[in-house]
Amino acid sequence: MKKILSAILLLSFLISCGQKKGSTQIATNIDTVRIKKDLLKVTKTHNSRNYKNIKTLNSIASYIKVELAKVCDSTTYQEYKVENETYKNVLGSIGTEHKERLIIGAHYDVYGDQEGADDNASGVAGLLELARLLAKEKLDYRIDFVAYTLEEPPFFRTEKMGSYVHANYLKENNITVKGMICLEMIGYYKDEANTQTYPIKEMSAIYGNRANFITVVQNEKSGNFGSKIENLMKKQKLIPTVSFKGSSLVTGVDFSDHLNYWNLNYPAVMITNTSFYRNKNYHTNKDSLETLNINKMSAVIQQLYITIKEL
After folding, report:
1. What is the largest CA-CA distance in the chain?
2. Where are the beta strands (DSSP E) in 6-58?
3. What are the residues whose beta carbons fall under 8 Å from the beta carbon of 281, sequence distance 6 or more?
4. 258, containing H or E segment
5. Contacts with 40 (C-beta within 8 Å, 6 or more apart), sequence order
């Protein structure tokens, strides 16, 4: 019975399977020096950027806003109160003359006392670099780059998450959304055998056991938007790319800010290296900057940049 259940879950989860082969290339127009600077700024703080350290959170929010302001048409804080403290999402927008919006988001807070390099300084660095690259493009839709606060416990799956506050704002104001791309842990990779695990062990036969790929996580609400992101990401072949499709019955599918957009019926995807299924430093003080692979992370950013241009 257990094997039958695993097979059913596997079938429903892997609607779109197959790792696109191809050697990882270093993205030539990605500034790795600038990415390292962003990572250093976000990770090497005196106190961890968790919900208890408001001053640290505010300093990182300020850094993100300053960087976005260099390339965006407009920047702002989205402030809200939680337990008598003020927390901030950071928003930067390009193409503000257009009504339809693409949301690209990443959370900047951490769980506990740690650097949170992969989780999720890597996503923040990806967000900032995408803003710099895409600001140079002429697109026919608006992009809102959003750095969220309070993604981590004890606020995960509550209306106090920064991404819930933002998604709910979109819904209440009837804003047209093309889709949402969540950047969640994009910096950790290993080429050695047996470095990748899965929620269902049979998945290793399809995807392999080497932690050298990036994933596009979708559910039924991702729709055509999710399919386009998947196909365009795989098309570039800068880094092996797979697509996972499934419901919250599979642990990890909704473990980030895209959850709140799905819940409000917006198409969304999560771009991730599979989090704790790969990176055993997850939510520990071993999640440090020194463990990240900047070249592979840069390939992911380059692949996303091209994908978004071609949407």
Report:
1. 57
2. none
3. 118, 188, 287, 288, 291
4. helix 258-263
5. 289
Question: Residue 309 half-sphere exposure, CB side, CA atoms within 13 Å?
Answer: 15
Phi-psi region of 265 (alpha: psi -120 to 50; beta: other; left: phi over 0): left
Going through the chain in order, the beta strands assigned E by DSSP cover 74-82, 85-94, 101-107, 142-148, 177-184, 214-218, 241-245, 268-272
Q: Looking at residues 172-183, what average pLDDT do you find?
A: 98
End-to-end CA, the chain: 43
Residue type at position 218: Q
Span 8-25, average pLDDT: 41
The average pLDDT across 49-78 equals 98
The string of pLDDT tens digits covering residues 107-150 is 999 999 999 999 999 999 999 999 999 999 999 999 999 999 99
Cα distance between residue 167 and residue 172, in whole Å? 9
What is residue 20's DSSP assignment?
Answer: P
pTM to 2 decimal places: 0.92
Instruction: Write the DSSP symbol of residue 117.
Output: I
